[in-house]
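User: Predict the complex.
Assistant: Input components as received:
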Amino acid sequence: MASAVLVLNCGSSSVKFALYDPESRDRLLNGLAERVGTPGAAITIKFPNAPLTISDLDQTDHHGVLARILDELEDWRAEHDLTITAVGHRLVHGGEEFASSVLLDDEAMAAVERCSPLAPLHNPANIAGVEAARAALPDIPQVGVFDTAFHQTMPPVAYRYAVPTEWYADLGVRRYGFHGTSHRYVSSAAAELLGRPLSELRMVTAHLGNGSSLAAIRDGVSVDTSMGLTPLEGLVMGTRSGDLDPGILGYIADRTGATLAEITNDLNKRSGLLGLSGLSNDMRELIAAVETGNEQAALALDVFCTRLAKYIAALAVPLGGIDTLVFTGGIGENSQPVRARVLEQLAFLGFELDHDANERTVRGLSGPITTADSRAIALVVPTDEELVIARDAHRLASTTTSLLES
Ligand code: AMP
């Protein structure tokens, strides 16, 4: 019987899932449960030949939804002679507790719980997903893959904020960084593509999606990043502000009477490209609007690209220069105008854009977008966080199984 790895990404009201073949690394199927925990809960399973939507759920919480997904997969798995040998969970915040992926035993789960105050919207939902998977598949190893883990190699000079020391010591206020699974994957894929060891490259990886962050990678490890205690810091994003003067919070509270929770919500959900353009958080829509002369969309695009270029240049400091820049994420992989504007602003760092290569490189394609003579190389590498989770889960589950057998 062939093995399959189940990858789960559980949010408070959604469960994304996928099954991977750990040998070929192919995704066998995937799906999504939405409105989890409400009477409108529904599951869509994208079976290769006939997608299935289920909305008659008896139990709509994470346990009920996952049990039903596994139930629906039963016949298909039997038909394909597949058995689930590991479950990989995407977990958001591992704080200072986790510097790599781990088997989720009771001790690890207690540590994930301890990180919940750092991500109160995400970690509890992730934990509910792990508990549901443990209940449904009690004999199968569960593995946690953290968004923050890759950045645990950052030195204090990169991760400490200039705030009272007890904020850090007692409350964990420091920069953690996110999108670590993506930065880890694209940095090693880029080195492979260039045929050079990661240890030789002073690399910045730019994960540009609805959420966006940068990582500075030296000797293959993260030495700095643009996101902070939460994913709000750094670049301009779809609906998040990125960096701003913290004094704005008190000013808005005084002027409008808004609570801190309301202001934080505005900074997360009504800012960024959406806030600036007043139109959309979607880069495709903004670029289309710029082409029809929409000035607010043009300003949003300018602010997005200029903040990005400034931040990339800043990461030359911890790296001692930049020789490789990797674009990934929905915008990084697909938006030629964003890549072109950023590289044009970074010409002083040695990037020379290859216009034709840039135009050609979209929809899952990878490769360089700078000229052969360019002193620094920029390239596009499609990310695949799910595959990394499947690979880590398979690797850690196989280690446990062989330990148990020896
Ligand atoms: P992600 O969060 O990685 O799925 O990325 C979402 C972002 O990618 C959105 O802002 C989309 O507008 C953007 N995106 C996806 N496809 C394209 C495209 N063809 N051109 C420009 N932006 C794109």
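The longest helix spans residues 385-405.
Let me know if you want any component modeled separately.
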